[in-house]
Amino acid sequence: MNLSPNAGRPKRMPPLQLVSMVDMIFLLLIYFLASTSYAPPESHLAPALMAQQVAGGRAADFAPQVVEVAPVAGEPAYRIGERVLRSVDALRAVLEELPKEGGVFVKGAGNVETRWAIEAIQAARDAGFVKVTYVPMELR
Q: What is the pLDDT of residues 100-124, one digit of tens each?
């Protein structure tokens, strides 16, 4: 038998400190909102390089054209394969005859004036090429 004065009364719990718990919940909520990534998952992104499947096509059908720009006797010379062209108009005329699907690479030698390479790029654009890439050649 318990004869203490609090024998019949239930024990009182100390009051809960809810303010600090609510603060912690809000801090966690802010942390999770700030650290969430809003970008779509990688599985939903389109790849930068997509494989093109062409039925019945050969790899050579889509090979890019290469235009080399190099000075010959101080004059700009444009070389496509074995052809050596001395003017931008002649280059444009030759490029208009070539297939456009593969694009064109303009290679400029290190000792070439920049305007010659720019003229070759513009000639390729004027001839109807959509994919035009400039590549500086290494000097040997």
A: 888 888 888 777 788 888 888 999 9
